[in-house]
């Protein structure tokens, strides 16, 4: 993991001081809420329906046991004993008090954490593949790039007041687990025939009210040019992006309005002027950062552990968990263990302080103290010996953290919706809870197989409904909660936006509708065919028929 | 209006002249781009210091050919959220080598002056004296920087790797 040096630490410490003074000025009435707003937003502090909400950055979703314990402590001491892991690999506290905010930030700074750039129209906390440094299919570790981008974007003097927020995601693997194609910039690390590293640069993806899949603006950008190239993209956007209408201000609208060709021409013209300048990292810095992400001291082990195989045979519940929640590791004898934060009837992404401490302890013992947060609102233990998986599972289970549902119908992404958010048309969390209760039967879930349900309470799409295999969007029908259903969305390497299949359905009928969809799928699939593949083969008609015939 | 230069409140020797106002007989004036374009000959013949004021959507291209004529370029922030002048400032300083006063005017927050200075602004106009005085403390709240910009500070990466900032004068980068 990256560790701060004195420079990194001084920046975060001075930032805490600065914010302390801003809060003091607000409390003393020297600043109105209006004047305070831009300042608090720069530190991840939002005003929600009921209270302030603090969004803590977990850069590219990587943290240590030590940091997780601190989050647990903050949840206990300053909040109601829990926190909420978000789709941007961050953690939100829903009930902090304004006067305690500087103390919280000071506690975070003690463990090299902060809330910088988790809100506001700046370059937001950069995200990456949660399996970085572990995935069997990885070309290069995206965390190195993500840390380079994190530093470059932190308090960037030119790009802190962009037309709109700006999100960058990095993946180093052909299987896109970071949703690179639906970010403002998606970076995919590739290697050429000679083994040199470079980036496929994708610009202008995004969800929200105008969902778009990004366009590739560079097929293979040599690694050393990364910062000058993205600085060129940002400069074009900062000058030409729309500022008259916040719904048309994202870079995707600019790319669309100019056309990809003209956009690329402008970026290249700007880049020509600054490439090979001091914007790019000086020699040595990339290597310095990369050294922090050297693999942990793995033991030399056999590819397949015999004990792991035996436990799977002997314990069916364990086998079930291992099948969904364990992913292959690049190191022989190790695997990646996913921790589901979607227990039956639970709130997607929520974890109690007690659970956070438990995860910290398990990671310390079994995963080199490393923990990841996923954009699907789960946690990951990236480096677990296969021989330890049974122990890990049992411990997780005793903390209600071993739900074997990763990628299944109850592994739902849901935005805060009407429970927390003033913009909502409808509830998201209770709907997620109802769906997971309806499909509580794990056998049925496993039979249905991979199925991603994503719920947003309004058109802002915080719940990524456009890229759900089944997407649910809350709409307001004469004051009643209705949900528009989309099918066939996906945020992986074959990104697609879901299609609306028909009129919206009322709250009371949504769960039935989903069951109709899954039953229809099960009837249509060929042997081993996933929901998404089936949908792509047969199209929406069969689903439309069963769904609307039933009503 | 109170003006800060070199972290001090100073007396402004320039006068903003609205488009409808007649030009004063002498003294430095800051005029709009529209006026500059319309009355160029008169203004050049006036034989007194000349400054220009750009709106946030008026980019550097509008003035680069005339740059040597201006003793002040004032970039307007219609609201603190409009970040275009930051890019304009860096381009003026780093790409077009403008060395005279670069002034931030309009809706400026105390907590933005650090960013502005990094982008090349060296003068800041505030609505009142108290705001101006308070802003002075904000210049040095955070010492470390991660990027190279127009202020020639060495980035964290340069300090760590002991490299100098040799390119800064050459390009906008
Ligand atoms: C009260 C709480 C919230 C409010 C008022 C809110 C508001 C918004 C708004 C207005 C947008 C659209 C921005 C745009 O189009 O540029 C947005 C986007 C987004 N929000 Fe939230 N949000 C809230 C909480 C959350 C939470 C808790 C999450 C994560 C679980 C989240 C994740 C996202 C994401 C990922 C997007 C980006 C979609 C895109 O790429 O355009 N939001 N939010
Ligand atoms: S999608 Fe809408 S309802 Fe849900 S959190 Fe975002 S703004 Fe609120």
Q: SSE string of chain B, helix = H, strand = E?
A: EEEEHHEEHEHEHH
Tell me the structural class of chain B.
alpha/beta
Number of strands of chain B: 8
CATH superfamily of the largest domain in chain B: Aldolase class I
Provide the domain count of chain A. Answer: 4
Query: How much helix, percentage-wise, in residues of chain A?
Result: 25-40%
The CATH class of the largest domain in chain B is identified as Alpha Beta
What is the number of helices of chain B?
6
CATH topology of the largest domain in chain A: Sulfite Reductase Hemoprotein, domain 1
Structural class of chain A: alpha+beta
Give the structure's gist in a few sentences.
The complex is a heterodimer of chains A (551) and B (173). Chain A is an alpha+beta fold and 551 residues long. Chain A has 18 helices and 21 strands.
Q: Care to describe what's here?
A:
The complex is a heterodimer of chains A (551) and B (173). With 551 residues, chain A is α+β, with helices and mostly antiparallel strands. Chain A has helices at 6-27, 33-41, 65-78, 101-110, 142-153, 226-240, 251-258, 260-274, 285-291, 306-314, 316-325, 353-366, 389-398, 429-438, 442-448, 507-524, 531-538, 541-549, and strands at 45-47, 52-56, 62-64, 82-85, 91-93, 127-128, 168-171, 185-191, 197-203, 215-222, 326-328, 334-339, 350-352, 370-373, 379-385, 413-414, 453-456, 470-477, 480-487, 499-500, 505-506. Chain A folds into 4 domains: 6-110, Sulfite Reductase Hemoprotein, domain 2 (Alpha-Beta Complex); 142-291, Sulfite Reductase Hemoprotein, domain 1 (2-Layer Sandwich); 306-398, Sulfite Reductase Hemoprotein, domain 2 (Alpha-Beta Complex); 413-550, 2-Layer Sandwich (Sulfite Reductase Hemoprotein, domain 1), CATH 3.30.413.10. Chain A contains 18 helices and 21 strands. In chain A, the strands form 4 sheets. In chain A, strands 16, 17, 18, 19, 20 and 21 form a 6-stranded mixed sheet that branches. A 5-stranded antiparallel sheet of chain A has the order 1-2-5-4-13. In chain A, strands 3-14-15-12-11 form a 5-stranded antiparallel sheet. In chain A, strand 4 (82-85) and strand 5 form a beta hairpin. In chain A, helix 1 runs antiparallel to helix 4 (101-110), helix 6 packs across helix 8 (260-274) and helix 7 packs across helix 8 (260-274). Chain B has 2 domains: 3-141, Aldolase class I (TIM Barrel, Alpha-Beta Barrel), CATH 3.20.20; 143-173, no CATH class. In chain B, helix 3 links the parallel strand 6 and strand 7. Chain B has 6 helices and 8 strands. With 173 residues, chain B is α/β, with parallel strands linked by helices. At the A-B interface, helix 1, helix 2, helix 5 and helix 6 of A face helix 3, helix 4 and helix 6 of B. The site of iron/sulfur cluster has 14 residues of chain A, from loops. Protoporphyrin IX containing FE (HEM) binds next to loops of chain A.
